[in-house]
Amino acid sequence: MTKLLAGVAFGALLAAGGYYAYANIQEDAVTGDAAVISETAPAAAGSVEDAAEFLAETEAEIGDFGEFAAHTAWVYANFITEDTEYLVSRMSAEATELQVRQAGETARFSDTDLPLDMRRKMTMLTAGITLPTPSGSDYAQRLAELTTRMSSSYSTGTIEIDDTPVTLDTLEVMMGTERDPEFLAMMWNDWRAAINPAQMSQDYAEMVEIANAGARELGFSDLAEMWLSNYDMPADEMEAEVERLWGQVEPLYEQLHCYVRDGLNETYGEDVQATSGPIRADLLGNMWAQGWAPINDIVGIQSGDGPGYDLTQLLEDHDYTPVQMVETGERFYTSLGLDPLPETFWERSLITRPRDRDVVCHASAWNLDNEEDIRIKMCTHVNAEDFRTVHHELGHNFYQRAYRGQDMLFRTGAHDGFHEAIGDFVALSVTPDYLVQIGLLEEDEVPDESADLGLMMNLALDKIAFLPFAVMMDQWRWRVFRGEITPEDYNTAWWELREQYQGIMPPVERPADAFDPGAKYHIANNVPYLRYFLSYILQFQFQQAACDMAGWEGPLNRCTVYGNEEVGQRFNEMMEMGASQPWPDALEAFTGTREMDGSAIIAYFQPLMTRLEEENAGSSCGWE
Description:
The protein is mostly helical. Helices cover 55% and strands 4% of the residues. It has helices at 48-78, 82-105, 116-126, 137-156, 168-177, 181-194, 197-217, 223-227, 235-268, 296-299, 311-317, 322-335, 343-348, 384-402, 416-427, 432-437, 452-463, 466-481, 490-502, 521-524, 530-549, 565-576, 583-591, 599-615, and strands spanning 34-36, 131-133, 158-161, 164-167, 279-280, 364-367, 374-377, 504-505. The strands form four sheets. Strands 1-2 form a two-stranded parallel sheet. Strands 3-4 form a two-stranded antiparallel sheet. Strands 5-8 form a two-stranded parallel sheet.
């Protein structure tokens, strides 16, 4: 998975799937926004009328430049060459110079008593920057060079297997299907060597130094405080909120880890995977050990007449194509009463990997004009994972279109976790009943509820396994930004946190010049990752609220809201708000509560939790 642009000041890339929303400063992110702070003398304090005029002009500029930036980024992502790298780097530098003036001019309104909506916009113009740069135009250009080089190293990396170059999207599939531990370790290790880790580590350290200086000029202690200041609460309170939410779901993860480790030990033996301590990262079916569903055949729970059904096999049996998968995803949203995607979506999206060129294959959703030019870009494979990913990415597109009526700065999610949660909530409705309604599963093939533990286990391997990974990703970066982790300790600290939160370890000894964080898209491309953790919390809250709204009385995991226009109306009302109100208001509009809460996850998986505790009774759980 790959992040793009070296400092686009008006884009937002949000990823579990990746999300681009150009012409939007709050979540600017394509390889990290670079914003420079002006050195000019402070202007006289502005009035409310002055602030209104400034914001109107600023939002017009954001819309105009953002559309140009989006098209430039789209071309780069679909044609990775030295020429497009040059274009995207130059565009990034121009973007920073524009934001120099915009971020700097907010200072004259810092003491002005502004209406809440105007104050929120001022905050978005400062705290919403992903990678700020300090005064001096050379910093903007240098940051653009660094981030573009890291992004391109990631996007173009390949490894050799049988004298054939293999790209990351193929390696991702192979990590989930291969079962030879030596071969898995080879792929795992060679990918981490393919990204030019020594150079990327140096580039990353220099990038951090520049961005921290920029954050300090904006009034933050460091970039960590700046990133954490985007959630309608003080940074330290938000960090504590993350740990509170993780604490709610950690017991379920610990039981899952224990059960999976025993299953891997039974499959591979004590020499490969011990029954105690951390799990070997390459055995978990994913290049980053962030989702373990591909090893369900090894560690899944057999319940009822079996594990239920194989969605990948169903798609293949019905001769699905990548385009048909996207069409099916669209029909879910239109069944809720939402308008179909525009014709230009089908004309301009990239749905499969081209054979003739390098592209950024990380799945992403784009809005190139903040109106109707919405697209997806992904190298789609016909399998269960990409079927759900399509539903997820389209959630970004329908959200983007829903809030297009808001002011330019409010055309984004209530917070970044909302954007990711929208599509994942819909993907939770990919239930047996949904598959029957769309013709993929026959009525007599629907497993009875005795099979639910198997299906629930498969989902837990995907979603519960992901939670600690999502927390530690930004924990590592926050500590790097604060100087608590220095460049010489980047890799060592990375694995200390992975063991602390996830209970995993590398399959081979890591060399001195390793930079394993950079082998993950969102590190190489500077996409904040907290949004994904929050989205996993929110999607289950959304599911619980929607199913209550629909009058569902059965198990939560069997509920689908496909075809329910009442749910669709409430859902769309929340989406239409964009970021115009603090996120608790948006959350309340759909769920009736103003607090993020992990208890919906526990409720959803409670039958599995009980079963895992029974199965683990004789095991030595934990990994320390």
